[in-house]
Design a protein that fits this description.
By secondary structure, this protein is an alpha/beta fold. It has one domain: Spore Coat Polysaccharide Biosynthesis Protein SpsA, Chain A, CATH 3.90.550. Helix content is about 25%, strand content about 15%. It contains 6 helices and 9 strands. The protein has a 7-stranded mixed sheet with strand order 2-1-3-7-5-8-6, sandwiched between helices. Strands 4-9 form a two-stranded antiparallel sheet.
């Protein structure tokens, strides 16, 4: 059986409730038993960051949401990369609001021997910009290796008029809510921290590992709140 873990914050009723709903959904749709995995919250992360001796790869890549929460997400995923190495087997890594859309053959995930297999529908990036869906998200059904953008431009500014339009979503996960990780991939991600860290879904990128996609993506995020992003209406979705 595929080892599967869902990151949640036990002190948060919102996080706990959506994680429980996701766990039930995975059981009902895929007959998959998903285990809860306690994440790192914004109140504990600074000491963890200091103790880690990590450096930030690019400071201007943090700040799309709450920086402390973004760091917490990174360390939550990092702890599961280490778990993958400890188990020495493929594991499915989920965030608390990962929601399976349809039944598929789990043996394809267990047998995957690349680095990272993304099963989650991207929740930001060029797929949501100007009604121009990224071509790679509409490829034929199956497991597809992502292309690497070879254009000479700033891949962080791919939607500006100055840079021209480019679907560089293939460089990152653009949403790290649902992906399969192999021990080989885990080793590369952990080794990559020597070059500095980024928000989790930008850190997991193709100059560290090779990303494949399971198409059509069978999992999406469904919660109507975020513990990472700024909420202009409510200022914060944190409930503790």
């Amino acid at each position: 059986m595929l080892d599967s873990y869902i990151i949640y914050l036990p002190k948060s009723k919102k996080s706990t409730n959506v994680a429980n709903s996701s766990i039930n959904r995975f059981k009902n749709i895929l007959n998959l038993d998903v285990k809860k995995w306690e994440g790192v919250d914004r109140y504990d992360v600074w000491q963890k960051f200091i103790d880690s001796d990590f450096r930030v790869n690019a400071r201007n890549r943090f700040g799309a949401g709450y920086i402390d929460a973004e760091l917490g997400v990174f360390f939550s995923h990092y702890s599961l990369w280490k778990k993958c190495l400890e188990l020495n087997k493929n594991i499915l890594i989920l965030e608390h609001d990962a929601w399976p859309l349809y039944k598929f053959d789990l043996s394809l995930l267990e047998e995957f021997n690349g680095d990272v297999l993304n099963v989650g529908k991207p929740n930001w990036g060029s797929i949501y910009k100007n009604n121009h869906p990224s071509e790679w998200t509409e490829k034929p059904k199956g497991i597809l290796e992502r292309e690497v953008c070879k254009k000479e431009h700033n891949i962080y500014n791919v939607w500006t008029k100055e840079e021209g339009y480019c679907h560089c979503d293939t460089m990152w996960l653009f949403g790290a809510h649902s992906y399969l990780l192999t021990p080989v991939g885990a080793s590369k991600l952990i080794k990559g921290t020597e070059r500095g860290i980024l928000p989790a879904d930008m850190y997991i990128r193709q100059d560290i590992i090779t990303i494949h996609d399971f198409l059509p993506h069978p999992v999406e995020q469904y919660a109507g709140f975020s513990l990472t992003l700024h909420d202009k209406k409510n200022e914060s979705s944190w409930d503790y």
